[in-house]
Amino acid sequence: MDGVQNVPRAGIIELVFGEPDPALLPVTEIRRACATALDGGRTAALPYGANEGPPELRRLIAARIAATEDRKVPEGEIAITGGNSLAFDQVLTRFTTPGDTVLVELPTYILALGIVRDHHVDLEAVPVDDDGLDVVVLERILDALALAGRRARLLYTIPTFQNPTGTCLSAARRRRLVELAAAHDLLIVEDDVYRELVYDGVAPPSLWSIAPVATVLRLGSFAKTIAPGLRVGWLNGSATQVEHFAAAGFVDSGGCPSHFSASVVACYLEGGGYPARVERLRSEYRARRDALAAALTEHLPPGSSFVVPGGGFFIWVTLPEGLTASALLPVAERHGVSFVPAAQAMLNGDDGALRLAFSMYPPAQLAEGAKRLGAALGSFSAGR
Amino acid sequence: MDGVQNVPRAGIIELVFGEPDPALLPVTEIRRACATALDGGRTAALPYGANEGPPELRRLIAARIAATEDRKVPEGEIAITGGNSLAFDQVLTRFTTPGDTVLVELPTYILALGIVRDHHVDLEAVPVDDDGLDVVVLERILDALALAGRRARLLYTIPTFQNPTGTCLSAARRRRLVELAAAHDLLIVEDDVYRELVYDGVAPPSLWSIAPVATVLRLGSFAKTIAPGLRVGWLNGSATQVEHFAAAGFVDSGGCPSHFSASVVACYLEGGGYPARVERLRSEYRARRDALAAALTEHLPPGSSFVVPGGGFFIWVTLPEGLTASALLPVAERHGVSFVPAAQAMLNGDDGALRLAFSMYPPAQLAEGAKRLGAALGSFSAGR
Fold first, then answer.
1. How many CB atoms lie within 10 A of CB A295?
2. Do B355 and B345 form a contact (C-beta atoms < 8 A)?
3. What is the average per-residue pLDDT within A287-297?
4. Count of CB atoms within 10 A of residue A6's CB?
5. What is the H or E stretch that residue B183 is in?
6. What is the pTM of this model?
7. Per-residue pLDDT tens for A238-280?
8. Considering only CB atoms, which chain A residues are within 8 Å of B48?
């Protein structure tokens, strides 16, 4: 696996990477889709692509949204992106000005912080609890900023199966959040990358689907359900926002940033196997979540806690009072297991929790990982 | 050709698009490369890619540079990009701060201006003449900025077969430019996208190859020689600069932005057909350049002038005194030919020239386009 981003170290069960198991990637299907995209006289996959992305992919995404979210989306409210990370960078470029305040969740997706920090904006954090982002604190922050003559321009949030906590924003908070955003002219960037990976019932409605028009930019992606290396996602917003987004200088110059991959994804979706694939992934990752949760229940010491997430890739473990995850990490790695300490996803130094990803390993290895984590916690506590 | 960026209008010979002729795209070869990239157990093309891009592609690019530019490049001085436009956006994000001064050529690549304008920097222009960027004026601008307590942070230049003028920076000016840059701590971004498309002799050495280390970031691309829709290019700089570039937030999060396409390009290059393909393109585009130049000589009215470019995609026509290209454009389109008026590539309103691209049409159509342009100029001048 030369040339990939995340390579597990020998002897360590890496519960670090929030990435699809390479064994579950649709290699054969994508090979077939490439052949279709480049079949015979078809050359539309190779010239500069339309700024908003291949129209056939936009139509197929609209159809999937209609089927799974019961919402009819005009093509003009969809732009194809180069994945959620580039899309978020592009949103920051196009929708913020240096010195603006950008709000993130606490804890948030670690690597989103680097994207925000590339944009010369002020960063403020809104805490997350078991029901997701705390909208009461958010309102307080928005009011305080307004009093200080400042304005929060944008909120980056993962309301559904959050990274890193696995939590879902409650229905009441979803409604309140979009109300607050509309009232304060706060643009919500909804990272909705885990929506399809729901293991119990159905995923809650996206913020984008319940908000007044132009309040939410929703970022969807095929990174978790098809393959991350393709770098294909999409943005939903008002037609004006979509146009503004897709008129980024580098897109106006180079065309859709994922044009070839997006054409391949369109051919893959046209093949009709995507809904069944998503079902298979749900069942596979559900089994992994269950295996990790059961083993954690068995092996974690008293005083630890976690909530079983309804979807996504992560279990967030709160450690017994007084333990810090960053100090635990080297001990855990000596025991052959790794994780992301809370401090990396925090802006306030809190480090009493850790993130475990259950996407990369089959159930037996996840159980072994939990066992090693329990042993590491035992030896760590004993040594204090 | 649904979903591509540039679609010719019926009845108009569009000498507008600086894009490879779709008929010359290597559809079959890329289809084969996709099959190789996804062959059997190979799954490295589908997970998140290494931030700096697939190592095999970096090695293949190093080998091509060694063969064509006689320079040995360590892998650490190459990062794979999502094409020159995204790479330039990423350079601006990572190497400038809002309020910095960024220098561009006058005229410059039109769509580069949009990329710069996305970054809240001050834009200043340095004129280009028949020998390329005027280094005497550049020095004056650098000194004036220094006197005013400001500093030019970065210069965006296309020294080889420039877009839009087709000019090459002279050898003496190349040396002077990198001296000035080193002395003023000015970072040169060298857009080197046309290097391989040389029609007479050999292309001049890149600024990157003659400059002190860390003075030049060179952007190379496969957009013109393989296919633009793949969005694959590379950046050359010092190891530290390459690392800083590839540590962009969105790359750190999503991996190499063109990972899948880059893996496909690596397989294509491994096949060994690239040097012969470049030769074939040179011969094809040389014939097109010659056809357009000959027809312009025949059909342009007295007082017009142009220099035959030694490579690239463009001929820059200076109009007879007093004519403006933007006013000519609708007349030309009524005659069935189109072009880019100078004003779009200028920051100072100058509009006495126009850009003709000869890449998209075979010789006979280029000749017909020149004839129509001549007729349009005749009727335009008569109507004044």
1. 21
2. yes
3. 98
4. 17
5. helix B171-184
6. 0.97
7. 999 999 999 999 999 999 999 999 999 999 999 999 999 999 9
8. 4-6, 19, 228-229
